[in-house]
Amino acid sequence: MDADGDSPQVVVGRYMLYGVLASGGMATVHLGRMIGPAGFSRTVAIKRLHAQFAHDPHFVSGLLDEARLSARIGHPNVVSTLDVVATDEQLLLVMDYVQGESLSRLLRAAAGRGEPVPLRVAIGIMAGALHGLHAAHEATSERGEPLHIVHRDVSPQNIMVGVDGVARVLDFGVAKAVGRLQETLTGQLKGKVPYMAPEQFRNAPIDRRTDVFSASIVLWELLTARRLFDGESEAARMGEVISGVIDPPSKHAPSLSPWLDAVVLRGLARDPAQRFPTAREMAVALEDLVAPATAAQTGDWVKSLAEEALLLRAKRVREIESATSDVDGVQHARNASRSGPNAAISTRTLETLQELPTSPPRLPVAETIARRLAAYLGPHTAKVAVKTFSMRAVGRGPETLTPADVPALQSALRPMLRTFIGRAQCEQVLEQIAREVTR
Question: Nearest to residue 94, comparing CAs of 103, 85, 86?
């Protein structure tokens, strides 16, 4: 699914959320823009979690803890978590925007064409992902103490492959936080069962080798163009993970060498002690056996499978970047807000505040309203708001406002004011406006 439209759906703090890039059971991912001081802006991907997660204090607390740890991961093969925004209504994870596609979509596109993944491309993607996982496993605190980060949800959905040919792992920390919430609510283990390691079902200790097992499942599927654990039910798939027969990849792709089989099957050993002890060691073993595709070759493969979607998304990014190049009006509105850094502004209000001229109101009614609003919105935004909402409420400019127009203007202003200063304070301000205009 591609982001569409150059108008933000919502603004939360310094982030503008645009069209949807992807959607799942836990969250919707939006194309977004981060707007900073002095005209600085940056295109980002913003994961907007669904309400049941955003409203659960235990989940929010756990996710924030995990995000702080994940921010310590710095590696070319990891999608960086830039920020986490938690408000009463929203929980956002802000990530680097990658011009590319998820491995899951690429695999579906290749299967739809009946094309196998080129061997060197498959090795390059998974070696890169394994190097990214190793960087996470090795991450330390500011004091140099190991953080023991484990992804727990390595799957094709959580590997992005960019048009630059680089594979990147994303969503560190989310799986653990979700698991904590689900265990609290139901006492049941949930997740992407076909990509989980046996120890995750047994409540056994989890460490970096759990991610090695999951990455090996993804590699097996890349090499064979089929699912490894594909039982008809979740229970059946769980049984296959725990004790089912695991064929060597060459059984389904005869051109593969027995040495490659050996590497994959070692990664899939059910006993963690028999697996590669680190993701890096597995990556190096793969690279020693098969020369990975170059970044250019992998990027060309991505473009060949997703060219139309990528071109459309790149066009949307250009439109959004152009639309947000002048953020003066947004900055005034955001900086003047008294409801904290996470105040949300409606799209219609935002667009109007950006576009309309700001000549000062001339008559006492307009001046009185603007003066009262300025205490909460700032002088610039207050003047623009009076002009905008007088046109919306009575169809005339602020210079024509009379006391009789105040009720209609109050109704028009109410949604915007509630966004900035909250429901209770909004009503107080509107009452003050009515008293001052009519006295």
Answer: 85
Quote the number of domains for the chain.
Answer: 2
Question: Residues of the chain whose pLDDT is less than 50?
Answer: 1-2, 177, 179-190, 327-362
Residue 338 lies in a domain: no
Residues 294 and 413 in one domain: no
Identify whether the C-beta of residue 279 lies closer than 8 Å to the C-beta of residue 215.
yes
Clarify whether residues 242 and 371 are in a common domain: no
Output the pTM of the full model: 0.71
The single residue of 4, 56, 153, 230 carrying the catalytic annotation is: 153
For residue 359, what are its two tokens?
């000549």
Element spanning 29, H or E: strand 27-35
Each residue of 352-373: pLDDT tens digit?
434 444 444 345 788 888 887 7
Amino acid residing at 8? P
326 carries an active-site annotation: no
State whether 83 and 36 are in the same domain: yes
CA separation for the pair 240, 227 (Å, rounded): 12
Q: Is residue 336 part of a domain?
A: no
Give the structural domain span for 67: 10-312
